């Protein structure tokens, strides 16, 4: 049974500076217009590890030793998020004021946590941090000797791809003792992908995609209490079966597993909506690195080591009745078309131009958000995935490999549903589906019957069932 009370005690908060700041790095690191599309808010990437063979003191020592070298490679993350005094647009002051290393203790073994109801598990171990900090590295030690290592940052500086890069590079630094370079080369920290045109040019439809982020546009706080967070696992065999079903009549083209899962979830959403609304929407957060390219990149390059935001939303509305009656492969074709529709460099150029004209909103404290996030109109589920990116939280011999890596965002007063899909670190082809925001009715439909493909995650399924030993 999950614990009735989860006690988390902060043991220490330490500021750690870069050991070798790169010479000539600009004192002010300007963010791009693509960074401003989502704007500043905290995001977390939580990694859960079983008890380390070398013990928790060795974990802390290795993490502390790696951080100065890591910050030297990712120097803006040792600075501070500030505001331009004239425009109020956020910037990064590369002052080497130091990133935060937080150490905390949980008086609970991992085996006792309710991982399916993640507000009662992962939601309790991510530690709030000052909004001016670009990086808060958080080590939570559990009573069983297991631990959580959380990379927390500001979304202004990193999207999902960049977030994974931060984790992978830090894990490599830990494995190598914090010395030497990164095997994949240095990260790309510039913000020179796309510049606004003069004058800015964009489709008028972009205005309808965004809304001012104000209390008047969001659901009331009591409604947010009804929103649930759940964590599911879908096995590789079930994903393969979905992929086969979604590839039928595709003219020889193989549907991706992600598109197949999206089609399946969209049909679940339609079942949950039922007769309460004639239609429902799916929305996707799409990484644009493959189509944007940039300075020094080969045409179509993936910008794998670019640290910043290169994402956009796209959405599609469909009739509930038609979704329920339509074969999976036809729904998958709709999903594929919606995603392909924004995989254009011109789409991202228009976003850059649109933000350029809307920057004045920052001066009066305003912020924009994608309208589909608000939860107004027909029911909408937003889905994103970290699937194309190899997630490697391996800290090396004696320290361990993660059993779960999952992004975490506080949903605040947004009323749409949202899930994030990530690969299981074990590498067996299974995926975790983290419910960032789910309505109770949608949870009922997802979990209806033993035939459900999305299985609630448990401590036992993560391999923590026997982790009841004392903290080392």
Automatic annotation (TrEMBL):
Keyword entries, A-Z: Acyltransferase, Transferase
InterPro entries: CAT-like_dom_sf, Plant_Fungal_Acyltransferase
Lipoprotein recorded as keyword: no
KW rRNA processing (keyword) present: no
Entry GO MF terms: acyltransferase activity, transferring groups other than amino-acyl groups
Pfam families per the UniProt record, alphabetical: Transferase
PANTHER family, A to Z: OS06G0150600 PROTEIN, TRICHOTHECENE 3-O-ACETYLTRANSFERASE
Family: Belongs to the plant acyltransferase family.
Name of the protein described by the UniProt record: Uncharacterized protein
Species for this entry: Brachypodium distachyon (Purple false brome)
Gene from which this protein is expressed: LOC100842402
């Amino acid at each position: 049974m999950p614990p009735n009370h989860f006690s988390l005690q902060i043991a220490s908060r330490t500021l750690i500076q870069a050991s070798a700041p790169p010479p000539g790095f600009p004192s002010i690191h300007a963010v791009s217009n693509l960074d401003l599309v989502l704007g500043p808010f905290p995001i977390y990437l939580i990694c859960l590890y079983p008890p380390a063979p070398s013990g928790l003191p060795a974990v802390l020592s290795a993490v502390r030793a790696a951080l100065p070298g890591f910050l030297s490679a990712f120097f803006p993350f040792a600075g501070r998020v500030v505001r331009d005094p004239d425009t109020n647009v956020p910037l990064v002051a590369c002052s080497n004021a130091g990133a935060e290393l937080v150490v905390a203790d949980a008086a609970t073994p991992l085996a006792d946590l309710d991982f399916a109801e993640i507000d009662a598990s992962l939601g309790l171990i991510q530690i709030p941090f000052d909004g001016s900090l670009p990086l808060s590295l958080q080590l939570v030690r559990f009573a069983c000797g297991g631990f959580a290592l959380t990379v927390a940052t500001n979304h202004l500086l990193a999207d999902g791809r960049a977030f994974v890069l931060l984790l992978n590079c830090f894990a490599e630094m830990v494995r190598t003792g914090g010395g030497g370079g990164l095997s994949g080369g240095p990260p790309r920290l510039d913000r020179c992908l796309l510049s606004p045109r003069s004058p800015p040019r964009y489709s008028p439809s972009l205005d309808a995609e965004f809304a001012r982020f104000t209390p008047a546009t969001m659901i009331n706080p009591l409604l947010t209490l009804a929103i649930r967070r759940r964590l599911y696992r879908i096995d590789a065999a079930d994903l393969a079966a979905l992929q086969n079903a979604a590839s039928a009549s595709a003219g020889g083209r193989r549907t991706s597993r992600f598109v197949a899962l999206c089609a399946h979830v969209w049909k679940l959403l339609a079942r949950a909506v039922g007769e309460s609304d004639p239609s429902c929407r799916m929305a996707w957060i799409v990484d644009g690195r493959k189509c944007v390219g940039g300075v020094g990149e080969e045409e179509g390059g993936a910008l794998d080591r670019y640290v910043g935001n290169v994402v956009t939303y796209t959405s599609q509305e469909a009739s509930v009745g038609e979704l329920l009656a339509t074969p999976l492969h036809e729904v998958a074709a709709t999903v594929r078309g919606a995603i392909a529709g924004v995989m254009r460099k011109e789409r991202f150029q228009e976003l850059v131009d649109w933000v350029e004209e809307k920057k004045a909103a920052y001066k009066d404290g305003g912020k924009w958000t994608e309208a589909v996030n608000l939860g107004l109109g027909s029911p909408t589920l937003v889905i994103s995935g970290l699937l194309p990116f190899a997630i490697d939280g391996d800290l090396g011999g004696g320290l361990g490999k993660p059993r779960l890596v999952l992004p975490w965002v506080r949903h605040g007063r947004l009323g749409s549903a949202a899930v994030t899909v990530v690969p299981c670190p074990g590498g067996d082809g299974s995926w975790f589906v983290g419910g960032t925001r789910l309505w109770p009715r949608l949870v009922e439909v997802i979990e209806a019957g033993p035939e459900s493909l999305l299985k609630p995650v448990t401590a036992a399924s993560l391999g923590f069932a026997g982790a009841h030993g004392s903290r080392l």
